[in-house]
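Kindly inspect the following:
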Amino acid sequence: MTTFVLDRHGWLKPGAGLQRAPSPNFDARPAGAEPSLLVLHNISLPPGVFGGTEIVDLFLNRLDYSSHPWLERLRGLTVSAHFLVRRDGEVVQFVSTDQRAWHAGVSQFEGRQRCNDFSIGIELEGTDELDYADEQYASLKRLTQALKHQYPLRAVRGHEHIAPGRKTDPGPCFDWNRYGRENGWFRRQMPPLS
């Protein structure tokens, strides 16, 4: 399996298992803000449904809200993440890692507000109640290694850790021990585990 490599503009270089779908939902990071935090999320649209176009369509502002009753609640939402890792391990990139994706919302980490300013967001296709696929951990490893090579990432958290009480993802089914071990994170760089 080939490694992922970011180009000088913050995009993964083309390769197998990669798709680029540029989202309009981003802006510039504040001056001097370099990514130092990796944030993991989960998403499925509609909830619990995998493999469709809805996630990509949401991030590209072209979601057909009438295709499922649950989707209507997302109308008017303008969000994105830097990456999506699908159940089969395919990676979709929406925003350059040099830019600010709109993934964290109201959030804070170590006293700093607005985590979008200094983080990179990765969505995992999944739910809080379902184990993630081995293919996702494999792609997440390749992606994490590329990001750690390019940026001074000093911590990784779930959305639940930077927006407690508001968010619950990636949820209890994400194997933080496995992810930390496979990616060389020190215990202090990861969320506290119970």
